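Final report, Chapter 2: Outcomes

The project's central promise was a pipeline that accepts a single protein chain and returns its three-dimensional structure in a standardized token representation, suitable for archiving and comparison. That pipeline is now operational. To close this chapter, we reproduce one record exactly as it appears in the project archive, with the input sequence first and the structure output second.
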Amino acid sequence: MVTPPSGSWGFWVPEPALVVGPAVPDRLRRYVLNWLSVREPWYYATRTIRNRRAMFVRWWHAYLDAGLNPSASPQASKARNFSKVLDVLAEIFDKNNINTEDLKPMWFGQPVSSVDNNLCWDMAWELPEIGFRMDLFMLDRALYQQDRDQAASAAEGVQLLNQVFSGGNILYINSVQQRRPCLTELGRVWQVP
């Protein structure tokens, strides 16, 4: 069995199925609202902190289940790694002067108190998009570190990556893509009688 090297193999953002996949409505609401509470500070940290830290799936699960209050969920309070989650988040909040009392669930600047299908669809699009962009960015940084003699500076490399994405920033999405019909929906429309 292959074991991952320590300090790697984490996820920059939680897996979409973890956040919007719970079948129990109360759990779905808790997971979505807990993610939306730290989403903006987390994204800000991924753009600004030099030594970014990814979190393992079980860490994301522990956080999404209980938020910043480990007593909110019996499962999360028993998780051995919950303290590691709080360490990672505390590092981000401390470096950016974020008061955890001020964290409110927000979606593109709008407060969120309830969870509906449209929000879940949008989050299911946004999470892998940001994950892909973060992986691409980290790959670029790793390759840059390996070849320091290259002509382009690190800043020029980031500028090139930024030009690829709408909004001009690889690590930030300023709006959700308009939902288009999926292939099965299109197939129903264009079926030959």
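Archive annotation: Residues 117-146 form the longest helix (30 residues).
This record, like all others produced under the grant, will remain available to the consortium after the project formally closes.
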